[in-house]
Amino acid sequence: MRRFVSYRARNLISTTTTSSLLAAFRFLSTLQPSSSDSMGSDYSSTPVTRDTLNPKVLNCEYAVRGEIVTLAQKLQEEIKENPGSHPFDEILYCNIGNPQSLAQQPITFFREVLALCDHPAILDKSETQGLFSADAIERAFQILDQIPGRATGAYSHSQGIKGLRDTIASGIEARDGYPVDPNDLFLTDGASPAVHMMMQLLIRSENDGILCPIPQYPLYSASIALHGGTLVPYYLDEQTGWGLEISELEQQLKTAKSKGIDVRALVVINPGNPTGQVLGEANQREIVEFCKREGLVLLADEVYQENVYVPDKKFHSFKKVSRSMGYGEKDISLVSFQSVSKGFYGECGKRGGYMEVTGFSPEVREQIYKVASVNLCSNISGQILASLIMSPPKVGDESYVSFSAEKEGILSSLARRAKTLEDALNSLEGVTCNRAEGAMYLFPRINLPDKAIKAAEAAKTAPDAFYAKRLLNATGIVVVPGSGFRQVPGTWHFRCTILPQEEKIPAIVSRLTEFHEKFMNEFRG
Ligand SMILES: Cc1ncc(COP(=O)(O)O)c(C=O)c1O
């Protein structure tokens, strides 16, 4: 019977269920004493208190899902409960690189293959030929043949299914033109666990430092904090489009060494988050040379490799750049992170990715494998997707034309959205914004009036968080304050994604422009 409930009806049921659950939760919350209440919720006799928690956990911050987002969720609830209670009727989430949460559609070929792998019983049904493309069916058969037991519900090898690693290795070879050993690949639940794994392997104590760009994606500061290391900052140069200067790396390395820090690795995010710049090849060669000279592991975050929007820039992997300089396996230690979450596919919730680990001895590799095996394996759908993004349909495959149209549609729309938002931001008083050459973000600088800075101080908040909160309360637009990514002291920024649907961009621009004018009028001298 349930089988015949229509999609619309099911949606209605689930919305109704969710809202009744929320209502029940709200009702119960009014009955339950708050955590500071002495009745029944005095936790002082429980074995763990905030004071006895691991201080590394307390030190760790992750602004992308911080206070502003919590406020946004509260406002969303209020609008739902009481329409008209705010000067806007929806929350516009520009805070996180999560494309499908903002209505980006998944790539059909990828989902067809995933669906078939997850439910192989339909592969033999005659209707399947009409519903799925021939190359998706063929790919699903190939993939299932590579999975021990042909079951996506089984654990796999801790580095990931060997056949999928072979496919990914061929994809990287096709991208870079240099050989890849499938045994160098570790398939992971997105790039985040891979980054944590490398930090865990490299950081022995607070005397170990990791050179990180500032501004940076807070996964890095959070992971370094969680593993008890020291973040050694190097500042990207906003004046030159968030340029990465070797002289700055040298200076910061020297300063860190003078403080007794053993700097072990350099993190480079290319294309950059939150800064959106795409590194030039010559600059990448200098970076490789620097790591080699200084004996640093190069941690190359390349999750935005498909997101380049300007014709004068191109993505080059650090693996390709280092091999093109004649450096082989034993010359440079390099880890490249890739993810299914970004690009034009945006499959964040599927949690897939890999790291390619080169230039480490067999003894070290054994330890990396041991750490990976503690987690048993990454999820199999994520592994399949990682193989698909590195080996999409080719010319002549049935899906090729529709796949290319979907890909091109998403990437060209992202490029238009980036340009429209960049122009709008640059037209605001006291705001300057570098190009989003790649990735999914703009990171404008706001020259806030002194009065606004004083008001923020009085409110015990960072000036850019003060601006972001006012923006949210006035317009429903959610951005992340620059202080969450770190920035040159005394400068203020915010990060705004380019991901809201294209038809929503004009509303974002007009609400932001109106808010900014009012804000500046209120606080100007
Ligand atoms: C630069 C960068 N690296 C890594 C990640 C982690 O992504 P995931 O764990 O979803 O692969 C993100 C997510 O936004 C990112 O922006």
From TrEMBL:
InterPro entries (UniProt xref): ALAT1/2-like, Aminotransferase_I/II_large, PyrdxlP-dep_Trfase, PyrdxlP-dep_Trfase_major, PyrdxlP-dep_Trfase_small
Give the pathway annotation.
Amino-acid degradation; L-alanine degradation via transaminase pathway; pyruvate from L-alanine: step 1/1; Photosynthesis; C4 acid pathway
GO annotation (BP), single:
L-alanine catabolic process
> What EC identifiers does the entry list?
2.6.1.2
MF terms in GO: L-alanine:2-oxoglutarate aminotransferase activity; pyridoxal phosphate binding
Q: Which domain of life is it from?
A: Eukaryota
- Cofactor(s) listed in the protein's UniProt record: pyridoxal 5'-phosphate
* Domain Aminotransferase class I/classII large: start-end pairs: 149-511
Pfam families named among the record's database cross-references = Aminotran_1_2
**Key words of the record:** Aminotransferase, Pyridoxal phosphate, Transferase
Outline the subunit composition: Homodimer.
Q: What is the similarity comment for this entry?
A: Belongs to the class-I pyridoxal-phosphate-dependent aminotransferase family. Alanine aminotransferase subfamily.
Q: What is this protein called?
A: alanine transaminase
State the species of origin. Nicotiana sylvestris (Wood tobacco)
Q: Which gene encodes it?
A: LOC104232014
